[in-house]
Every structure is written in structure tokens, then in C-alpha cells.
């Protein structure tokens, strides 16, 4: 998907330089072309060869290197990039960029670049908290740079405190968000629901379902990467929410309804990927139920149908989890819930549906258009759903 896009990864002198190898790998895995430049200090921590092997192209370490870029690499590198990510960014590198120095390959190329600049600082806490570093970071933020972290935790020096480079997934997420700022959902606000709601039986047990949340999280991530601001309303899952996405945690169907109703008032679209429990115990026990009878009957009552009850004018996308008559049932839900688009999936298929990383879905829109899609990753399904959302939003 991203093969035509290039990330220029700048590695500077910090012990966290070894983590930049993971970043290079992650962007390559996602289909980006990655070029790497390193300051001389960075090469003392990690060999350029590591990055060359990972990204399959030469690493530029010298401003006067005459590599494939020709005699002035900083200009051609800057021209080829969709974003510059400096990770780890040392205090020295941040200072030089903030004050317009251009005497090494990283600062010089950054100065010649006008696209998204993402900076992940990593240094000892005292250096990070030093007034000079704080001011320099402030200057870069003011100029529009995205500064990620640093996080707090164990530092290489042995102490604890602020200064650890943020986790790879977080840096990747914010970088993709920065690159996607001008995507086809730029300026749109999208609410996404995910996960299976939990309806309490007593303080220990609940009624829930097998939803992993993966489909909804993939939709939220894809919305972010295409420029939307995203609010993810999620029932409990074991997943880490995508970086750069606002999250509201809920447990029950009623909580999900309340949070979603509040959120859709300012939204352009709602993608309802959550698996909402249709019934809940009518009177949940306030104490743990003891096994003192041979059989137990729990009376259930209907929960709110969230999609069917939300008020407001926004594009409505629902999912239909079906085990029989897929298209017929999905069409009935499309009209009963007054949806613009429904994503129908056969939950009996072993290679798709609940818990899997892939999904085979059929998209049915309010005009009767039907698109039967092949098995693909949940992220690819998310992008195909959003292609239709972009069209329907006009
Ligand atoms: N949904 C909802 N509120 C509910 C139940 C479902 O908003 N109480 C939403 C789901 O998030 C999904 C769509 O409605 O986007 C269809 O959900 P599904 O479980 O397939 O259908 P139900 O409406 O629950 O109908 P049934 O279980 O009878 O198939």
C-alpha cells in the first residue's frame, strides 16, 4: 500500500539508537521505503551496517558522502522523503535543529525539508529537564514538529525518570498520523466502536462475547492514517489502542450508548464495529452468587440497540455478524437500523471473523450496491470500508 512512500529515519547519538533498528524494520514491514541517516555519534552506538541490512539501501553518515544521492545528499534525501523521523533525538540534535545549525547530515537534511518532522527525544532525565532542552523542544513544537515522548521509566544510567524513548509502536503510530494529515479523511471526525460489551451478573461474572476488538481497532488506526480525528469507544479488550486516537473505555452496552451518543454529536461518521450484548441480567447481584442451589436461572432483559437508537445526522456504518443467510440478514439490518453502509461477515468461517487477523466481508450500501471481497487482513478490510465511507461522505 505504501511502497511509493519514503520515510527518512534519522538516528542520533543516544543509547536508544539500537531501538531505531526496530523502527526501520516496522516501517519496512508496513511497505514504506526507508532511508537512514546517522550522525557520527549514532554510529558509535550502532553500526550503519545494521540499518543497511534491514532497509536494503546505503546509510548516509557524512554530509559530503558521494553515495547514490550524488555530491549533495542532504538535498536529494530531503526531496525524496514524505516525512523525517528523528529517533532517537539527542539533546544536541534537538538544539542544533531548533537553532538552525546545519553542520551534519541530520541537521542539514532536516533544514532542507519542509514536510512532516517527527522527533522522539531520548536522553538522561537531567538533560531532558534542562531549561535549554525544554526551550528547544518548545521551539520545534511551535514550528509544527510532532514531538513524541519521552516516556518515564528505567534509564540506561541506572536511575529512573523521564527520558526513555517512547515505544516503537507509539512512534510508528504518530509518524503514520503525521504522514496521513492530508489524507482523504482530513478534517473529518469519526467515531469508532470496538470490542464486546460486558454485562454484569455479579461482581465477578459477566455476559460477554468472543469479539477481540481487532476489527474496530484496525478501523480506528486506518481512519487516523487517512487524516481523520478519531474517537474510539471501546469495550474491554487485550489490545493497545492506536497512538494518536482518543479513547473512551466503557464496559456495558448502556455505557457504550451514552459515550457514543455524546461523541456523534460532533462527528461526520460512526463505524459501529463493537459486538454489543443484546441481553443483560435484569438484576445483577451486588454480592458474588454462591453455588448453593443445583440450578440457577438468570433473567435477562434487552439492552439498548445502540445503532438503532442514536440521534443526530452522521454517516452510519454497521457490521452484521451472521452465521446464516449473510446478505439477506445484512440487508434487513441495513434498512432496520437506517444505515448508509453495512459490513457483513460470516462468523462461521475459520479464517475470518472473531479473534482472527483476517476477515472476508461483503459491503452493502444504502443504494443496494454489493461488494463481495476476498479474504484480507483486518487492516485492509478497514481501508476498503473507509474507501466507501469517503465516497458516501462526498
Ligand atoms: N448493535 C448495536 N446495539 C446492539 C446490538 C448491535 O448497535 N444492542 C450494532 C452492532 O455494533 C452492529 C450492528 O448493530 O454494527 C449489527 O449487530 P449484530 O450483532 O450483527 O445484530 P443485532 O442487531 O444484534 O441482531 P441479531 O443479534 O439478532 O442478529
Please give a structural write-up.
- With 394 residues, this protein is an alpha/beta fold.
- The chain has two domains: 6-180, Flavin prenyltransferase-like (Rossmann fold, 3-Layer(aba) Sandwich), CATH 3.40.50; 183-393, Rossmann fold (3-Layer(aba) Sandwich), CATH 3.40.50.10300.
- Helices cover 34% and strands 23% of the residues.
- It has 14 helices and 21 strands.
- The strands form six sheets. The protein has an eight-stranded mixed beta sheet, with helices on both faces.
- Helix 1 (17-29) packs across helix 9 (168-179), helix 5 (91-98) crosses helix 8 and helix 10 crosses helix 14 (378-393).
- The radius of gyration is 25 Å and the shape is elongated.
- Cytidine-5'-triphosphate binds at residues 253, 272, 274, 276, 278, 303, 305-307, 318-321, 333.
What's the level 1 CATH class of the largest domain?
Alpha Beta
Question: Architecture of the largest domain in CATH?
Answer: 3-Layer(aba) Sandwich
Q: Number of folding domains?
A: 2
Q: What is the tally of beta strands?
A: 21
> Any ligands, ions or cofactors bound here, and which?
cytidine-5'-triphosphate
The chain-level structural class is alpha/beta
Radius of gyration: 25 Å
Average of the residue pLDDT scores:
94
Low-confidence stretches: none
β content, as a range?
15-25%
Q: Any idea what the shape is?
A: elongated
The CATH H-level superfamily of the largest domain is: CoaB-like
Main beta-sheet strand count, sense and barrel state: 8 strands, mixed
> What is the distance, rounded to the nearest whole angstrom, between the alpha carbons of the first and last residues?
23 Å
- Which topology of the largest domain does CATH recognise? Rossmann fold
Amino acid at each position: 500500500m505504501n511502497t511509493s512512500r519514503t520515510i527518512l529515519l534519522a538516528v542520533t547519538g543516544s543509547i536508544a539508537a539500537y531501538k531505531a533498528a526496530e523502527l526501520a524494520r516496522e516501517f519496512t514491514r508496513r511497505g514504506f521505503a526507508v532511508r537512514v541517516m546517522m550522525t557520527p555519534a549514532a554510529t558509535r552506538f550502532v553500526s550503519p551496517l545494521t540499518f543497511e541490512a534491514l532497509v536494503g539501501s546505503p546509510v548516509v553518515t557524512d554530509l559530503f558522502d558521494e553515495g547514490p544521492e550524488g555530491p549533495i545528499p542532504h538535498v536529494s534525501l530531503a526531496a525524496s522523503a514524505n516525512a523525517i523521523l528523528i529517533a532517537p533525538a539527542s539533546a544536541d540534535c534537538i538544539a542544533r535543529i531548533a537553532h538552525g545549525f546545519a553542520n551534519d547530515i541530520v541537521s542539514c537534511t532536516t533544514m532542507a525539508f519542509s514536510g512532516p518532522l517527527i522527533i522522539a527525544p531520548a536522553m538522561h532525565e537531567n538533560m531532558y529537564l534542562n531549561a535549554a532542552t525544554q526551550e528547544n523542544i518548545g521551539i520545534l513544537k511551535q514550528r509544527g514538529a510532532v514531538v513524541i515522548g519521552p516516556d518515564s521509566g528505567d534509564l540506561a544510567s541506572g536511575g529512573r525518570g523521564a527520558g526513555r524513548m517512547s515505544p516503537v509502536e507509539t512512534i510508528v503510530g504518530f509518524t503514520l498520523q503525521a504522514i496521513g494529515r492530508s489524507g482523504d479523511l482530513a478534517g473529518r471526525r469519526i467515531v469508532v466502536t470496538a470490542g464486546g460489551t460486558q454485562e454484569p451478573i455479579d461482581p465477578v461474572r459477566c455476559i460477554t462475547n468472543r469479539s477481540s476488538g481487532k476489527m474496530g481497532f484496525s478501523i480506528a488506526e486506518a481512519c487516523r492514517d487517512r487524516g481523520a480525528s478519531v474517537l474510539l469507544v471501546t469495550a474491554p479488550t487485550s489490545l493497545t489502542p492506536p497512538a494518536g486516537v482518543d479513547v473512551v473505555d466503557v464496559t456495558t452496552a448502556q455505557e457504550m450508548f451514552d459515550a457514543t451518543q455524546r461523541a456523534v454529536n460532533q462527528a461526520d461518521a460512526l463505524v459501529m464495529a463493537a459486538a454489543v450484548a443484546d441481553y443483560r441480567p435484569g438484576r445483577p447481584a451486588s454480592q458474588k452468587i454462591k453455588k448453593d442451589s443445583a440450578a440457577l436461572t438468570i433473567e435477562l432483559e434487552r439492552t439498548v440497540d445502540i445503532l438503532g437508537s442514536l440521534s443526530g445526522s452522521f454517516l452510519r456504518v454497521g457490521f452484521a455478524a451472521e452465521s446464516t443467510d449473510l446478505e439477506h440478514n445484512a440487508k434487513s439490518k441495513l434498512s432496520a437500523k437506517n444505515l448508509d453502509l453495512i459490513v457483513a461477515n460470516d462468523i462461521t468461517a475459520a479464517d475470518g471473523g472473531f479473534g482472527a487477523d483476517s476477515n472476508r466481508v461483503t459491503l452493502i450500501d444504502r443504494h443496494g450496491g454489493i461488494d463481495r471481497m476476498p479474504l484480507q487482513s483486518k487492516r485492509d478490510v478497514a481501508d476498503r470500508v473507509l474507501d466507501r465511507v469517503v465516497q458516501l461522505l462526498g
